[in-house]
Amino acid sequence: MDVPSAASAAPRQRPGADTAFPRRLRVGTRGSPLALAQTRAFIARITESAAAQGLAIACEECVIRTSGDASQASDRRLSELGGKGLWAHEIHQALCDERVDVAVHSLKDLETELPDSIVLAATLPRADGRDALILGPGCGVPDPADPWAALPRGAVVGTASVRRQAQLLHARPDLQVVPLRGNVQTRLDKLAAGTCAATLLAQAGLERLGLGERASLVLEPAVLLPACCQGIIGVTARADDGDLLALLAALSDPESHVAAEAERALLAALDGSCRTPIGGRARLEGGTLHLEGLVARADGSFLLRRGLAGPVEEAAHLGASLGLGLRAASPAELFA
Question: Which of 13, 171, 268, 302 has the CB geometry, 3.0–4.6 Å to 112, for a possible disulfide?
């Protein structure tokens, strides 16, 4: 269903602890095929979790058109149109107005500073967080040891991501990068139509749409460092909705929560927006959290990559420390 306007939304009495369930949850989401696939994965997970606790809930999809959706036809980069807030502003407003109860996001697209009344209440298990290289006709067979060698000299690569652009041009300055926007299928269609020789997409998104086999090669983070929180579904809710927050906390995946905490702290320390090429990836080994971060110029002429490791309990501190170190060692104009 589409979400009613704030004026037409009926006021909802906040249930007390003894009357919170059974409950109907209105789940806010964008309307793209990927957003809906992620929302349905969340609905299946929360319904199962609630049932295991003896709680009855019914979920209703509420599609919200965001500024980012409205600008998809533009050839301008997201950084030129307003950054990450384009994907969530209207969804935040629907939460604040109590037109929806919970919202589902690709966490990599969610800004690090949320409105005061909204919290990141759950992170679902991380899917494959790597980037996928998708090659069109005329390209070679990709070698995992040197994936970019499959691209002919001077080839056109389509991507709207300045992070992907910067790392690609740092490795292959001869390539041409052009903006390629739209949902996943639209970008694959543009590639097939010859708009570009290759493109790069998140493997998690391809797999959630049943298109995982379209990847010519899934790139290791050593080759292309992913976006912070890529592959993680994040769930937001109102900070005062205690009954729902408790249910969502039980749903959250501990490993993805720790990774998200570190990666979002890294991004916040860098004051990262869609204008600055930034990558980040956290992984757990035993009780140790390993975090890598990257800052670059969009044209690839500067790229700095560093890593830190520390206790899981210090995830946010680790991310902030790495971010501040990268910022101090990078040209100031990258953050202007």
Answer: 268
- Is the separation of the CB atoms in 83 and 275 below 8 Å? yes
Listed in order, strand segments (DSSP E) in the chain are: 23-29, 57-63, 102-106, 118-123, 131-135, 156-158, 176-178, 198-202, 217-219, 233-238, 278-285, 288-296, 303-311
Instruction: Tally Cβ neighbours within 10 Å of residue 188.
Output: 19
In whole angstroms, give the CA distance from residue 316 to residue 264: 8
What does residue 267 show for φ and ψ, rounded to 5 degrees? -65, -40
pLDDT in tens, 308-321: 999 999 999 999 99
Please provide the DSSP assignment of 89-156 as one string.
HHHHHHHHTTS-SEEEEEGGGS-SS--TTEEEEEEPPP---SEEEEE-TT--PPBTTBGGGGSPTT-E
Rounded to two decimals, what is the model's pTM? 0.89
Could you tell me how far CA 6 lies from the centroid of its own chain?
A: 27
User: By three-state DSSP, how is residue 20 classified?
Assistant: coil
Q: In degrees rounded to 5, what are phi and psi of residue 239?
A: -65, -20
Helix (H) or strand (E) holding 75: none
Q: Helix, strand, or coil here: 84?
A: helix
- Cα–Cα distance list, 219 to 46, 58, 112, 145 (Å): 32, 39, 26, 10
HSE-CB at 237 with a 13 A cutoff on CA atoms is: 20
Note the pLDDT of residue 22. 75
Is there a contact between 162 and 334 (Cβ–Cβ < 8 Å)? Answer: no
109 given a catalytic annotation: yes
Show Cβ contacts of residue 319 under 8 Å, excluding neighbours closer than 6 positions. Answer: 261, 262, 263, 264, 265, 266, 267, 268, 269, 280, 282, 291
Residue 7 DSSP label:
T
